[in-house]
Specification:
With 514 residues, the protein is an alpha+beta fold. The chain is built from 13 helices and nine strands. It holds the Pfam family PigL_N. This is Azaphilone pigments biosynthesis cluster protein L N-terminal domain-containing protein.
């Protein structure tokens, strides 16, 4: 049997056994507290199995983790071993269900055995969570490789647009000069005509001859003027998108000054680690982030120097959708009363249960006078089983990364928001703000990550020569460099690394997807 088929078989068998075991345990209403903890552990294990089952839709992902098959085999063996004790528990007709189950359950299973089950199944849940996190990293790395190719093509198109802009400006200047010369010739012709008509000493025949020549000359001038005007109209339509209204110059300078001030204040958060900003402090940070996002919205409208990069087609619809996504992320951000600043510890949550039925990713790159923007969003639709009926939940995640030209381009600013939509309402997790340094891709910290030099990497972190938020000049994080080092991947994820982070990683060696 192939590896992929074996994984699917183990998942299907294990999922059925876990559901049966969980249904039996939850039916005991007067059991000890450890029995209730065991039921919750079995529910988390079922959710991990369903999450692993959902990954089978992505080709090659499950096969890339050989340890996953062995983990499924061990977990299934433990479930089967503990399930055999259920055979001894037979309920006779007419017996009271709850008290009988409690008595019959306590005979074969003592408190120590329940504690052993709880420890073993909790360990399986932790291992599955790490395995799924590593698989998510590989998925993000695969997506980033494709996106980097699109970004490279966008940079080429941007250079071509700059050259075209320069050529159009030169044509526009030539048209203005030609128009001025034509007006001057027209003025001279009119003056000569008036002068000829006012000469009494010139014979009528000569005057008529001169006037005929002037009429012909005037016709030629008018024809040339009409041709130049048509050329000017065509050119003005091409260059209108690049023109800036003179009256907006002062407002633009004032707006840029506010953005630069916000960038400076946000950069001072670089040394803050594991900070929870609340109340007035959070409001100040949110105000600065709102200023940056408003500048991004202006960049999308103007499209002065960049061209959007997206998985979809249609410029107008893409531009409108990107502005809508940015404004939704801003609403989630401004509605929060606190922020996480440079988190260093992984916030552990049970993996979401249910089967993913649809996923929609969107990525856009914009360039402005003040820096480069990367907007990435993800929507997921998930079917979750309940006692009444199946429910559809939606998950929304948005990440906005800004690399400013100000401050020497040595820092990056990243904000992430997440919103969950369930049947009974919306839930927004605490937004995360990360400020990190931008280092050359040949820096020692990236070399230590790629080579798996764990001790030296810790030394760089301890001495302040590196931090967990560091990125290279292409935007790749430490997690992108650690894709071939599972131990370092797990460490970075536990300490706040974003497995959905996107960047240009074409320069990072790829051992899994070459």
């Amino acid at each position: 049997m192939e590896v992929g088929a074996s994984v699917l078989a183990f998942i299907g068998f294990g999922l059925t056994s876990i559901k049966t075991f969980h249904k039996f345990v939850t039916s005991i209403k007067d059991g000890p507290q450890k029995l209730q903890d065991l039921a919750r552990a079995l529910d988390s294990l079922r959710a991990a199995y369903e999450r692993t089952q959902a990954l089978q839709e992505l080709p090659g992902i499950l096969e890339s983790s050989p340890s996953l098959l062995e983990q499924l085999r061990r977990c299934n063996d433990d479930v089967d071993r503990f399930s055999k004790t259920l055979v001894k528990m037979q309920i006779q007709p007419g017996e009271r269900l709850y008290s009988t189950l409690r008595k019959k359950f306590k005979l074969p299973l003592c408190e120590d055995e329940i504690r052993d089950m709880l420890g073993i199944f909790s360990g399986h849940v932790s291992i599955f969570t790490l395995e799924i996190s590593v698989l998510d990293i590989r998925i993000a790395h695969r997506n980033s490789s494709g996106i980097s190719q699109v970004i490279t093509g966008t940079e080429h198109q941007s250079n071509m647009m700059r050259q075209q802009h320069t050529s159009l400006k030169e044509i526009k200047e030539d048209v203005f000069r030609s128009s001025s010369q034509i007006e001057h010739v027209q003025t001279v012709v009119n003056a000569l005509a008036l002068k000829v008509e006012s000469l009494p000493a010139v014979s009528t025949q000569h005057s008529t001859s001169i006037l005929d020549m002037l009429v012909k000359l005037e016709g030629k001038v008018n024809e040339l003027s009409l041709r130049e005007q048509q050329m000017f109209d065509d050119t003005s339509r091409s260059v209108s998108a690049f023109d800036i209204a003179p009256s907006s110059g002062r407002n633009m300078e004032s707006s840029n000054a506010r953005v630069v001030g916000s960038i400076h204040r946000l950069s001072t958060l670089l040394e803050n680690k594991n900070q929870i900003a609340e109340f007035e402090e959070a409001e100040g940070i949110i105000d600065d982030l709102e200023t940056l996002l408003q500048q991004m919205d202006t960049s999308i409208q103007d499209m002065g120097l960049g061209e959007p990069t997206s998985h979809r087609t249609g410029f107008q619809s893409v531009e409108k959708e990107h502005r809508k996504e940015m404004k939704r992320a801003l609403r989630v951000l401004t509605s929060s009363s606190k922020l996480k600043v440079n988190p260093q510890v992984w916030s552990r949550r049970d993996p979401p249960s249910g089967r993913v039925t649809k996923r929609q990713d969107n990525v856009a790159l914009y360039q402005s006078q003040l820096g480069d923007w990367l907007l990435s969003t993800r929507r997921q639709w998930r079917i979750c089983e309940t006692q009444a009926e199946d429910e559809e939940h939606q998950e929304y995640t948005a990440t906005i990364t800004f690399k400013p030209i100000a401050q020497g381009g040595s820092h990056h600013i990243k904000v992430s928001v997440q919103q969950l939509q369930q049947v009974n309402g919306f839930y927004a997790l605490t937004p995360v703000v990360s400020i990190g340094r931008i280092r050359p891709s040949n820096s020692r910290v990236f070399q230590c990550i790629k080579l798996g030099l764990f001790d030296e990497f810790f030394q760089l972190i301890a001495t302040g020569e590196a931090s967990l938020q560091d990125r290279d000049e292409k935007g790749a994080s430490l997690l992108h460099y650690a894709h071939s080092q599972p131990e370092i991947c797990c460490f970075l994820i536990k300490h706040g690394a974003d497995v959905d982070d996107l960047a240009n990683v074409s320069h990072v060696d790829d051992e899994y997807f070459e």
